[in-house]
Amino acid sequence: MIDDYAKANELMRKMEAQLPIPARSTGALVRALREQGVKLPRDQELQIKRVFYMGDEGGIMCDVTLSEEAKEAIVVSITHLRVSARHPLAQEIREYQQERTRRLALSGGPSQPSQFTARSRKRRRR
Description:
Elements: H1 5-18, E1 21-25, H2 27-35, E2 45-48, E3 50-53, H3 55-58, E4 60-63, E5 75-77, E6 81-83, H4 90-106
């Protein structure tokens, strides 16, 4: 089991009370969307408008559709979004992201993650 369902559900409940939540995309998300024809500037602020739980396979997913007039919805894993450290839920969201990423890595999934699977970055030596 990748997620603690009770913790994920509690985080979603807290997030729903705070919607919309401003967030920024990761580089991996920007690249994946561009491959699908969606041009998203890397520094553009997104709004998390809705949250869904997609089970262990997807975890917490967020609707960040760019506008009401958009023809296609953009729903992405919360692991591909960065919430401002000033947001009241930032620490809880970051903890969920880190734990989910860690558990995905330990689950022995495919050696090449799909475009929407989070993977840990190696730390740079200084």
